[in-house]
Amino acid sequence: MKTTRSANDLSAKLGIEMPITHEMFRVLYENETPRNAIQRLMTRGLKAEHL
After folding, report:
1. Which of 30, 2, 44, 33 is nearest to 18 (CA)?
2. Does residue 11 sit within a domain?
3. In the 3-class helix/strand/coil scheme, how is 28-40 assigned residue by residue?
């Protein structure tokens, strides 16, 4: 929780998608409901994972 804002800002700056972090940021700082955040995470399109 303590690093959610920093991680979200850094991912945006670097152009890296971090959907879980972004949704946590929305819940913590943008008054989003956990239910809506989970719904968005569970219905987002599939993408290839890179290591």
Report:
1. 44
2. yes
3. HHCCCCHHHHHHH
Q: pLDDT digits over 13-36, tens only?
A: 999 999 999 999 999 999 999 999
Domain that holds residue 12: 4-43
- Number of domains into which the chain is organized: 1
Count the neighbouring beta carbons within 10 Å of the beta carbon of residue 8.
19
The answer to whether residue 29 sits within a structural domain is: yes
Q: Is residue 49 part of a domain?
A: no
**Residue 25: CB atoms within 10 Å:** 21
Q: Look at phi and psi of residue 47 and say left if phi exceeds 0, alpha if psi is from -120 to 50, else beta.
A: beta
Give the predicted TM-score (pTM) of the model.
0.84
Angle between helix 34-43 and 19-29 (nearest 10): 160
